[in-house]
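Lecture notes, unit on binding sites. The following record was shown on slide 14. It pairs a sequence with manganese (III) ion.
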Amino acid sequence: MAYTLPKLLYDYGSLEPHIDARTMEIHYTKHHQAYIDNLNKALSTASPQLQDKPLEELLKSLDSLPESVRTAIRNNGGGHLNHSMFWLMMSKNGGSLPNGAGVTAAIKQKFGSFPALQEQFNAAAKTVFGSGWAWLVIGKDGNLAIMTTPNQDAPISQGHAPILGLDVWEHAYYLQYQNRRPDYITAWWNVVNWEYVEDQYRLLAGKI
Ligand code: MN3
């Protein structure tokens, strides 16, 4: 069973003016597709038992994977999972403030306020060296936490459940923002899909 590109639930231009249509199109049809193609290629050389495992299971136990496919699954499986979530974490009707009761209370408890969370998240996103992601996760202890991952590493590989993430690879913003990553980070908050974040929080908080 080969992985395929998940349907994008909005048009490429839906997130404008914050993220431009051309960036969305290339990011989704070229970059995300390439992770999928390379993941499928790696899995095609792996054992049937490995091919039948859900992607999240593979990423949770990278150390147990055969060395011949470990790096390819880490990079491309992570790339597929991270981007599949990233598209859902944004919406045409996104932005403003967190509005779900669960995540709002959890943010207040951990960070004191939403602006305090934003400040810490932005600082993390700005300082990812090279390519990577900034995340809001439910940590192993059940509390919210901010973390970053290099390249396409997925938070679940370290036992953390992501509920919001920001792709800070240059391919995510360079056409519109060039070297101005901080401007992209600021603009991105206008398209955050808080409904999805709340759903993920409710789904995952119970499992930790
Ligand atoms: Mn990307």
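Take-home: The beta strands are 132-138, 144-150, 161-167.
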